[in-house]
Amino acid sequence: MGTGVSREARLLSTSRSLRRRDSPAVTVACLSNGTGSSQQAAELPKNFNFADEEPLIYERWESSGSFQPSSTASGDPFTISMPPPNVTGRLHMGHAMFVTLQDIMARFQRMRGRPTLWLPGTDHAGIATQMVVEKMLREEGRSRLELGRPAFEERVWQWKAEYGGFITQQMRQMGASCDWSRERFTLDSQLSEAVKEAFLRLHDKGLIYRGTFMVNWSPSLQTAVSDIEVDYTEDPGTLFYFKYPVAGTDEHLPVATTRPETILGDTAVAVHPEDDRYKQLVGKECEVPMSGGRLIPIIADKYVDREFGTGALKITPGHDPNDYEIGKRFDLEIINIMNNDGSLNAAAGAYEGLDRFDARKKLWADIEEAGLAIREEPYTMRVPRSQRGGEVIEPLVREQWFVSMRPLAEPALTAVADQSIRILPERFARTYNMWLENIRDWCISRQLWWGHRIPVWYVFPDEAAASASADGRSSDYVVARSSEEALDQARSRHGEGVALRQETDVLDTWFSSALWPFSTLGWPDEASQDLQRFYPTTVMETGHDILFFWVARMIMMGIEFTGKVPFSTVFLHGLVRDGQGRKMSKSIGNVVDPVGVISQYGTDALRFTLATGTTAGQDLNLSLDRVLGNRNLTNKLWNAGKFLQMQLGGCSEAELAELAAADFSSADSLTDLPLVERWVLSALHQVLDRITAAHEKLEFGDAGRTFYDFFWAQYADWYIESAKTRLYSSDPAVSQTTRKVLLYCFRTVLAIAHPLMPFVTERLWATLPAQSQQLLITSRWPLHEGAVDQQALAQYQALQEVVSAIRNARAEYGVELGRKIPAQIVIADKELSAAMQAEMLVLCSLAKLDEVQVSVSSSLDASASAGESVSLLVRDGLEVRLPMAGLFDVSKEVARLNKQREKLEKDLAGILGRVNNSKFMDKAPPKVVAETMQQKADAEQKVSAIMQKIEQMSELARA
Question: Which H or E element spans position 953?
């Protein structure tokens, strides 16, 4: 059967024309409104008005308490901690993906009867939020420095109160069934206490310390930033070649760099120990250009790439991470030439005060003037840039707070190795292991005002000493939960006169996020009921790009502070790309706004597209054509609901109660049913098993595709059409049995579709005769007890094959669509023959056969002339003979086929022209020759096939 919108229109039109004459236009089915009362169901409108209906449905879910874990549900709780999006955020396709997948899990487990908690929240997003508010202040002509820290923090809280809930409202649009009564924010007071407690415990164990190391530095924000906040771009640049004079000689060492301004911070020049060009210079010194005669050593290190540049590498430990490591190996001096704002400092001598890029130009011009320049050449540079505005990130050595990670990494590695935590897809376990085996200490301090202020107080002998401190820091400090506790500690160690200054830095946003699975449940209060009931959580679903930055840290912190892994399964989804497979980018202009998609196609269509395109760890190419196709699926589901409502329209309350009570979940319940009903119930139960297994294995795409294939290709296109022959039977018992099966099937269809398409299924559920006063979201997942009849599946498949063969023949020979034709069906298997005869009305209806002139037998009618019939071999032991003579205009059909033949022969001639051209065959690439030969074979096959059709037509004409 066709699968387009026109097919749906025909379905609806047919069902209307077949409506029993005594059926009223308005349904009188008794249904549940989810509030404990019954109401009469008005006839469903032509289409599902998602724009109006979805907000109303969501409000019913939320107001009914459906999102909260049931206190009476049995079994182990199912818990998901939502990855907290930035409070500054707006919904993008990455958010839409995780909301869809996590909501599918939550809805499925809730329907399975498990106490289900999906805990939502947002992240304070230190850098992003501070930037937004600072931009607002600039527009007002003010700055945060003018406001001062307390007033600025208050301003940010005001902004959060006004705009911070925007993304959570958009997640509601996606149908997120999370428990909003438990919504958390990473700067909530309870979570702030958890952060302080974690810091104190790590510090007490010696795992937090203050040290000087290289960090990613943002000159505009004047703070360290994490690796995940740094993007790398391929930019055109210049490789500058210049001379390093060797001290005490006339020789020079040629060196190349992309950043001439950092020459002023060089503390060595390195060559490869096996490079014969420079072996004799190792151990000597050379003079740093434009430095006033400063000498540095020439060293040998195998890190140097002899093929890059000149094979001699300037070493700047203060401004390059690789040079920093070399500097540690050789105990080189670290010279910092840059201020926090990216300008050069006093160590740069005459270049002090210049911006780093201006200094590059000035220094190179001076090198040229000094005769030390060799040449310049174009070079593509891999440039680190801030995600927040795109500025070039500067590697700088700064004193910061760090967490010693190796002691935390070991238990986290063990947890994955012993399968306490399962990572899906499994290949990412190797990535996880590689990161943790090579882990470096974590810089957790940020030079911001918005965030968790580090709970460290520096101790001074008195207030005068504290006031005299340039940065408010001293070598003596205390770590405490509050300023009062800090003062008590300091006085106990140094007496009453001490003065304190709290650390001005805040913690990296990822520090509080690392505590998310347990801090949101009440930790460090071990007596918290939520912590005891819902921790460890069950699944962590997130993007594979933050496996290390977030997931690994949650695992480390969870084991460290609770002694338990924070979750047992990690499911990693990929990126959502555009239809061409490109990463979505504002610069390309290919960003797809999920809210815009929802407004055009509805939430269910977008969710179903994201779910069915999902394979763990794989990127998804999002095509709006696919969204449209799934919008058509929503329409198909709606029309099936309308069809059912029409069939129930004339039923009494008693009849409706009988229909609603019908249960076909046991094998015995199928025994006395006709073939069509036994088939659809068996197929439905098989699909139920596959979809249930797919959900249990987190194979969302398989669950969605399995539903799509069954509902569209089997239930709607075959069963509904098959059922029509009995729904309008003169025998009330026959029609009532069919209604029972139809209702049972559609109720099950809605239930298994609900996790993926919650809105339309909930709306249609409300039209069904009430079995209970319950919304679909909290109804139980369907079950069956071996109710699958394999013989019925096989026999109805044979019927489908017969119908399809006849339909194809009708189309091939141009028989009018509505014309009924005779047929002789020959079946060797007696049981199949009996089943086919029992379903003769269905067979004739589906294949448009003349009931009076159809026969089912075990052998061909010898009196029928072969020339008058078309023989269709459906399968071994199953043949159909169609007497086609007189059923269509043979001469007209032959003329049409001859026109097709002429076109095909013309196409073949063009291909043969290339094949017979020796120059083409000799010079064309092998791939092109192979494609041409395949085109020749295909064209010849098409010509042969149409010639065979013409011959068949001619034979019919002669008959």
Answer: helix 926-958
Question: Beta strands 230-245 and 252-257: pairing type?
Answer: antiparallel
Number of Cβ atoms within 10 Å of the Cβ of 426: 10
Tell me the C-alpha distance between 158 and 150, whole Å: 12
| Burial of 25: CB neighbours in 10 Å, binned 0-12, 13-18, 19+ | exposed
Residue 18 predicted with pLDDT over 50: no
Task: Return the structure tokens found at 470.
Answer: 């340039």
> In Å, how far from its chain's centre is CA 195?
29
Rounded CA separation 566/555 (Å): 6
Answer with the one of 761, 788, 815 that is the final residue of a domain: 788
pLDDT for 857:
76
- pLDDT of res. 592: 85
Whether 890 has a pLDDT exceeding 70, the answer reads no
Q: How far apart are CA 236 and CA 256, in angstroms?
A: 16
Q: 129 and 170: one domain?
A: yes
| Same structural domain, 784 and 882 | no
Closest CA to 503 of 536, 447, 454, 464: 454
- What does the angle CA 887 – CA 850 – CA 876 come to, to the nearest 5 degrees? 90
- Read off the pLDDT of residues 715-747 as tens digits, 9 standing for 90 and up: 999 999 999 999 988 888 899 999 999 999 999
| Per-residue pLDDT at 206 exceeds 80 | yes
How far from the centroid of its chain's Cα atoms is residue 90's Cα? 16
Is the pLDDT at 871 greater than 90? The verdict is no
The number of domains in the chain is 6
* CATH code of the domain containing 376: 3.90.740.10
932 and 914 Cβ atoms separated by less than 8 Å:
yes
Structure token digits, residue 623: 């095509």
Stretch among 25-34, 357-366, 634-643, 680-689 having the lowest mean pLDDT = 25-34
Same domain assignment for residues 766 and 640: yes
Domain interval for residue 337 = 218-396
Instruction: Record the tokens describing residue 667, joined without a space.
Output: 């094998």
| pTM for the model | 0.84
Q: Are 122 and 190 within one domain?
A: yes
